Amino acid sequence: MSLSRRNVVLAIAGMGGLTGAVLSGRALLRKRYAPTPYDDLLALTKDRDAAAQIGETVLAHIEPFEPEDAAAALRSHMRGRALAEVAVEDAKAAEVVEAGGWVLPKSVAVICALAAKAAG
Question: Origin, by domain of life (predicted)?
Fold first, then answer.
């Protein structure tokens, strides 16, 4: 088999198609969630299901919890900053929530509670 332009072009096109299939396949396999009014905050978690589990415990210790109000207050508090930065600031200011043996920065606790509410 000789190396012709046609064979090279077909090989490159095949590799490009395979790359596209792999990349789009990963996106198709990713878990999808029902949309919520606070998806922007929930996107800050690496594992939304784990956050929801912690959030169930947090919700048992926060009364009453209004998701829309909590999300609005958290957005205002974050002001576009990274969650890690806000969480450290909360911990330094002793803005923490204790729930089920966990001591969480308030911002993290609110996001976990929102994840639990979103999970239903």
Answer: Bacteria
What pTM did the predictor assign?
A: 0.73
As a three-state string, the secondary structure of the chain is CCCCHHHHHHHHHHHHHHHHHHHHHHHHHCCCCCCCCCHHHHCCCCCHHHHHHHHHHHHHHCCCCCHHHHHHHHHHHHCCCCHHHHHHHHHHCCCEEEECCEEEEHHHHHHHHHHHHHHC
The pLDDT tens digits along the chain (120 residues) read: 567 777 777 777 777 777 766 666 655 556 777 788 899 999 999 999 999 999 999 999 887 889 999 999 999 999 989 999 999 999 999 999 998 898 999 999 999 999 999 988
